[in-house]
Design brief:
Helix content is 52%, strand content 21%. The chain has 494 residues and is α+β, with helices and mostly antiparallel strands. The strands form 5 sheets. Strands 5, 6, 13, 14 and 15 form a 5-stranded antiparallel sheet that branches. It is built from 16 helices and 15 strands.
Length: 494
C-alpha cells in the first residue's frame, strides 16, 4: 500500500491523525515529571542489626558472620559487604542486575528469619531494606523562633512540621537535622546505693515493670462489653521521683533518695550549623516516581501555609538541590529550540523556497511533540538522558522530509503540477526513506537493551531516540507529500 498516495488523495485523515498526536504530545509533556535522573532500582539490599553495648568483635562473630553465612546461600548474589561498629552491624548484599529487586528483598528477609533464633536474644530485630536511589534529600530548611528553645523547636519539627510535610504529595521522608530529644534522666548516687545495699539492676528492673501500658482484654460493664487497658506510666519526672523502690531486704525507699531525677534532654550526638550558629533543621526527600520540581513547589506552598499558622516561626532554606535540576531542564529545552531553529535555517539556505522550507520544517515539531506522548505512556520522565536524546535527534527528524521535498522540487522543475510531482516523487523514494529511517532506529534502539548499570540509564535514551525517528518517518511518508501537493506552487519556466 502506498501510504503517501493515499494521504495525498485523502488529506483529512492524515491531518486529523497528526492533530490528535500533537494534542496528546502537548498534554503528555505538561504532565511529565521533571527529574535530574530517572528512578532506577538496583537489586541491592541492606541488613542492619543492632545490639547496644556489644563490641565490634562480638558483633562480627555472633551476628554478622551468621547473617553472612545464611545470606550467601541465595541465588544471584554478586557481592556481600559488611561494616561492623560498636553495637551495629550493616551487611550490604549486591545482587546481579537480572534479579528483581522485590524478590531480592524477600529472599534476604527469609534468610535472616531462618537464623533469628541463633542470634543473641538481646539483639533488636534486624532491619531489611532495599537501597533507593531516590532517597537523597532535595531540600533542607532551618527553623528558628524567639519563643521556643531547642527542645521545643525539635518537638515542633518532629511533630508539626513532619506531619505537614508528609501530607504533601511526592514527599517520601522528613528527617530532623540537629536539635535535641527530651529525656527523663535518672542519675544514681553510688554512695546512697551502697549505704542502702541497693543495685542498679534492682532499680532498672522495677522501672521497667512500672513504665508499661498493655491490653487487659475485655469486660462486661453495665451490660455492655468494654475494652480494658493496664496503665502503669508516670506523667512527669516529679511523679517518677516519688516512686517507691523495693530493696532486697524488703524495705521501701523513694527513687529520689537513690538518684537525682530530672526532666532534661538527651546527649546531643549530631549538630546543625547555619552560618556558624546552631540551628534545628529538617531534610525533605522525594518519594519514588515523583519529580523534584513539583515536590519543591508543593513543599514551598505548604510551608507558606505553615508560616501563616505560626507567625513566630522563621523557616529558612539552607540547601536546595532542586534549582540545578530546573536549570538543566530549562537549558536543555533552550538548546533543543536553538537546534530546531538552526536546522530550519540550514534547510532554507539549501532549498531557497519559503513554502518548501515550511513543509520540511513542519516535520520537526510534528515528530518531536508526539514523541512525548509515547514517552509518557512508557513511564519516562523529562530528565538529563531523555532531553539529551531529543537534542541529539533534533536534526535527524527533518532528514526524511528534506529528501521527500527535494525530490518533489525536482519533479516540479520538470514542469509537473504539485499534485502530480508529489505523487510520483513520493513513490520513487519511498523505499529509500524507509530504509534510511530503520537504519537509524537499528543504531539507537540497541542502546535501550544494554546490560549493567549503564543500561539502566540508557534504556530511556534508546527508546526516546528510536520513537522520535519513527515519528519522523510517519510524517515524511504521510504528511510531507500531502502538504507539498497542496501548498507548493508550480515552478515558473525561465
Amino acid at each position: 500500500m502506498n501510504v503517501s498516495a493515499w494521504s495525498i488523495r485523502n488529506p483529512i485523515p492524515a491531518i486529523l491523525l497528526f492533530v490528535l498526536l500533537t494534542l496528546a504530545g502537548v498534554v503528555s509533556f505538561r504532565a511529565m515529571k521533571v527529574q535530574q535522573f530517572m528512578d532506577i532500582e538496583l537489586p541491592t539490599v541492606t541488613v542492619t542489626a543492632s545490639l547496644p553495648g556489644a563490641a565490634p568483635a562480638q558483633m562480627e562473630t555472633e551476628v554478622a558472620r551468621k547473617i553472612e553465612n545464611s545470606v550467601a546461600t541465595l541465588q544471584g548474589i554478586k557481592h556481600i559487604y559488611t561494616k561492623v561498629q560498636d553495637g551495629t552491624a550493616t551487611i550490604t548484599i549486591e545482587f546481579r542486575l537480572e534479579k528483581p529487586t522485590q524478590e531480592a528483598v524477600d529472599d534476604v528477609r527469609d534468610a535472616v528469619s531462618r537464623i533469628r533464633s541463633d542470634l543473641p536474644g538481646d539483639l533488636k530485630d534486624p532491619v531489611v531494606s532495599k537501597v533507593s536511589v531516590a532517597g537523597s534529600p532535595i531540600l533542607t530548611y532551618t527553623v528558628a523562633s524567639s519563643r521556643m528553645d531547642d527542645e521545643a523547636l525539635s518537638w515542633f519539627v518532629d511533630n508539626t512540621v513532619a506531619k505537614a510535610m508528609l501530607s504533601v504529595r511526592g514527599v517520601g521522608a522528613v528527617a530532623r537535622v540537629g536539635g535535641v530529644t527530651r529525656e527523663i534522666r535518672i542519675e544514681l548516687d553510688p554512695a546512697r546505693m551502697l549505704a542502702l545495699n541497693a543495685t542498679a539492676a534492682d532499680v532498672s528492673r522495677q522501672l521497667r515493670q512500672i513504665q508499661q501500658e498493655a491490653s487487659g482484654g475485655r469486660t462486661d460493664v453495665g451490660g455492655s462489653e468494654q475494652s480494658v487497658r493496664t496503665i502503669a506510666t508516670v506523667q512527669g519526672a516529679a511523679e517518677l521521683a516519688a516512686m517507691d523502690i523495693v530493696l532486697s531486704d524488703g524495705r521501701r525507699v523513694r527513687l529520689d533518695h537513690l538518684a537525682e531525677v530530672s526532666d532534661t534532654v538527651g546527649e546531643q550526638r549530631t549538630a546543625a550549623l547555619l552560618n556558624g550558629k546552631p540551628v534545628v533543621g529538617f531534610e525533605i526527600s522525594r518519594s519514588r516516581g515523583s519529580g523534584e520540581v513539583e515536590v519543591a513547589e508543593a513543599v514551598r506552598h505548604r510551608l507558606a501555609q505553615l508560616k501563616a499558622e505560626y507567625p513566630h516561626i522563621e523557616i529558612t532554606e539552607a540547601f536546595n538541590f532542586v534549582d540545578p535540576v530546573l536549570e538543566n531542564y530549562e537549558g536543555s529545552m533552550k538548546l533543543l529550540l536553538e537546534g530546531a531553529a538552526l536546522a530550519v535555517l540550514v534547510v532554507w539556505l539549501f532549498l531557497r523556497d519559503g513554502r518548501a522550507t515550511f513543509v520540511s520544517a513542519a516535520a520537526l515539531p510534528l515528530s518531536a511533540i508526539p514523541t512525548f506522548a509515547a514517552m509518557y505512556l512508557m513511564g519516562f520522565t523529562l530528565n538529563v538522558v531523555t532531553l539529551l536524546s531529543m537534542s541529539l535527534v533534533v536534526g535527524i527528524l527533518v532528514d526524511d522530509a528534506i529528501v521527500e521535498i527535494e525530490n518533489i522540487m525536482r519533479h516540479l522543475r520538470m514542469g509537473k503540477t504539485p499534485y502530480q510531482a508529489a505523487m510520483e516523487a513520493a513513490d520513487e523514494i519511498g523505499l529509500a526513506v524507509i530504509a534510511t529511517t530503520f537504519t537509524l532506529i537499528a543504531v539507537f534502539l540497541p542502546t535501550a537493551f544494554m546490560s549493567g548499570v549503564a543500561g539502566k540509564f540508557f534504556v530511556q535514551f534508546g527508546w526516546t531516540a528510536a520513537i522520535a525517528v519513527f515519528f519522523s518517518l510517519v510524517v515524511a511518508r504521510m504528511l510531507t507529500p500531502m502538504m507539498a501537493a497542496y501548498l507548493l506552487r508550480p515552478v515558473a519556466e525561465e
